[in-house]
Every structure is written in structure tokens, then in C-alpha cells.
Design goal:
Ferritin; mainly alpha; 6 helices; about 180 residues
């Protein structure tokens, strides 16, 4: 057991726990996020000759090779955050709410690739990513109530989605 500090709250055994009590459960949370999060890559084609290469992009568009390592890193961080909240005990209502909000934002995350790349619709992608950004913010808030460290792990995610939102918006308006 790795103990990085504990905080008890309102009769909860380990509400702000960072102790890894179950490596299989941690691995499952990380793998879930990496595998489900990668589903969008099935429709994401950005190589030479792809629809994406024909779009005008803003000066701040990262090179295509950046996206995969960034997303894998973010999915791992999301998995760790998910684990920390999950380990706080699903018998507690606020943990269940936090897990539900995580699920909603995650579905929106996966749907973005299908809207933007699969349907080739920067507009639907923009609508989705704006909702995604809001749901990530809500998820951070509800995670913070359960486990502050879990909430902090989602900050790089909302930062990247902020950049992606600006990129999506710019692509939409530049390609009207």
C-alpha cells in the first residue's frame, strides 16, 4: 500500500485518499480511459490526402504528431483521477454524482471525434466541445468535493480542451 496522505471527512473512511489500495482497480480505471478515449481515433484521419489536411487552420494549430501523445497522457491522468474518486466509495452520493459527471464528459469527449472527423462537421464539433468544456469544469468541481488530488489531475485536460476549443472554433470560422 502506497500512502501519500489521507484526510477523513464526515465519517468517510478515506474521502481524500491517495493511497493505492488496489493496483488492479487503478489499472482498470486507466485502461478504461485509454481504450474508450481512443475510440475516437477510429474516425480521426489527419494524414496526407485526408479531409483534415484540406482545412485552413490557425497559426496556433499544433503539428498532427502532438495529438496522440497528449491524449494518451491525458487519458492516463483521467484514469488516475477516476480511480481516486472511485476508491472514495460508491456508497456515497457525491461520489456517485462525480462518477456520473465524469461519464457524461467522457461521452462528449468521444463524440467530438465522430462529429468533427467522422461527419466532417467543425460546427457539430464546436457545439460538442463547448459542452465538453463545461462538463469538464463541472467534473473538476464535483471531483474536488470528493478528492482534491483527483480534481487537480484534470487541470491539464481542461487546459488542452481549451486549446482544442479555440482550434475547433478557428477552423469552423476559417472554413465557412
Amino acid at each position: 500500500m502506497i500512502n501519500m496522505g489521507e484526510k477523513k471527512k464526515e465519517g468517510m473512511e478515506s474521502y481524500d485518499r491517495t493511497t493505492i489500495r488496489s493496483f488492479p482497480k487503478l489499472a482498470a480505471a486507466i485502461l478504461l480511459c485509454v481504450i474508450v478515449g481512443s475510440i475516437g481515433s477510429l474516425v480521426t484521419i489527419t494524414g496526407p490526402g485526408s479531409w483534415y489536411t484540406t482545412l485552413q487552420k490557425p497559426f496556433f494549430a499544433p503539428p498532427n504528431w502532438v495529438f496522440a501523445p497528449v491524449w494518451i497522457t491525458l487519458f492516463v491522468l483521467m484514469g488516475i483521477a477516476l480511480y481516486l474518486v472511485w476508491e472514495s466509495g460508491t456508497q456515497h452520493r457525491d461520489v456517485r454524482v462525480a462518477l456520473g459527471m465524469f461519464g457524461v464528459q467522457f461521452v462528449l469527449n468521444v463524440l467530438w471525434s465522430f462529429f468533427f472527423f467522422g461527419l466532417r462537421s467543425p460546427l457539430l464539433g464546436l457545439v460538442d466541445i463547448l459542452l465538453l468544456w463545461m462538463m469538464i469544469a463541472v467534473t473538476i468541481i464535483v471531483f474536488y468535493r470528493v478528492n482534491k488530488r483527483a480534481a487537480y489531475l484534470l487541470i491539464p485536460y481542461i487546459a488542452w480542451v481549451s486549446l482544442a476549443t479555440a482550434l475547433n472554433g478557428a477552423i469552423y470560422f476559417m472554413n465557412l
